[in-house]
Amino acid sequence: MPRGVRQVMAALACAFACALHMPLPAQAQQSVEEFYRGRNLNLVVGYGPGGGYDVYARLVARHIGRFIPGRPNVVVQNMPGAGSLVATNFLFNTAPKDGSTIGAFARDMALMGVLGGNANTRFDPQKFTWLGTVASGADDAYLMIARKDAAVQSIDDAKRPGGPTLLLGGTGEGAGGNDWATMLRDTIPLRLKVIAGYPDSAAMFLAIERKEIDGRSLDYSSLKSSRPDWLKTNSPVRVVLQFGRRTRHPDFPDVPTALELAPDDRVRALIDMAELSNTLSRPFAAPPGIPEDRATALQAAFLAMCGDASFRADAEKLRVDVSPLDGKSVRDVIDKLATAPKDVRDQMRQIRYESEKKGG
């Protein structure tokens, strides 16, 4: 081979070898608008159709796409199970981490993740990409309702030693109604028994009507939206307790709050922690680790949606509370839960998990 040809080939080989070790040119970053244009944004909700969380999820689904660059079509996917724990684990571990999936789950999931102590909890609430909460409970109340023909006619009946027991319906572990009832049963104490395992809110309403259970716990806004007739004078139920509030709701001036029933500072500290968790009334999140620009776009879209006149008009028709917190504020609440005094967290963990294993 002529010397000149060998020199050219050697130079080409050297250049090729150098090219292998050079960094590849950065690929053009796909913009947020390009990513979402023509795409479905999946909204996973941890309960079945018809309940309060589903109502909020579908409300958000109808509006949030208008505020996301590219205006994706938002599709609701119901994923009920274990008080929304199934959906929460899915969103954290399995859902795509590209911004194409967001989720709505129970307010108590954050506290459940902070406390630990449950082998089925496979998520870290401090690592979610929090969009915010549509409702923080500022103008709402969490109510315990009971049938008017139940043996328990007031919370004083449930406090009386040897008195009747109030049978309350609940979904799965981690659900707010279950945990409030368990805590109040063991700290006030109250004669309560939770019949857990109902798949969703609609099933619990039906169980009350069939007299399988005496009552349940739920948001005032959910009651107004799902069973407005139950707020009239001929209602089959009465409100026996309210919580999630420092003072009595103006619509229920004669119904005591959980704090009013607290016998000592220890119980008040536990109720305070639970009520802080309650401010995350209708939380929405995306999986951890999604691209930063998409996370920012989703968070901005969520906040813009909550302030939109047509969104609020739609919410008013549904009779649901809109008192939003942004993603940072939600994360601040979770950080406060995570840094609560250790003895309070330990007592809350014991109440929520150890007493549930014993039943009652």
Summarize the structure in words:
The chain is an alpha/beta fold. It has two domains: 32-137 and 278-351, 3-Layer(aba) Sandwich (D-Maltodextrin-Binding Protein, domain 2), CATH 3.40.190; 142-277, D-Maltodextrin-Binding Protein, domain 2, CATH 3.40.190. It is built from 15 helices and eleven strands. Strands 2-1-3-10-4-11 form a six-stranded mixed sheet, with helices on both faces. Helix 3 links the parallel strand 1 and strand 2. Helix 7 runs antiparallel to helix 11 (265-278). The N and C termini lie far apart (93 Å). Residues 15-28 have low confidence and may be disordered.
In short:
The protein is an alpha/beta fold. It has helices spanning 3-21, 32-36, 52-63, 85-93, 108-115, 155-159, 176-187, 201-209, 220-226, 258-261, 265-278, 292-306, 309-318, 327-338, 342-358; strands spanning 40-45, 73-78, 101-104, 129-133, 142-147, 166-169, 192-195, 215-219, 237-243, 283-286, 325-326. It has two domains: 32-137 and 278-351, Bordetella uptake gene, domain 1 (D-Maltodextrin-Binding Protein, domain 2), CATH 3.40.190.150; 142-277, D-Maltodextrin-Binding Protein, domain 2, CATH 3.40.190.
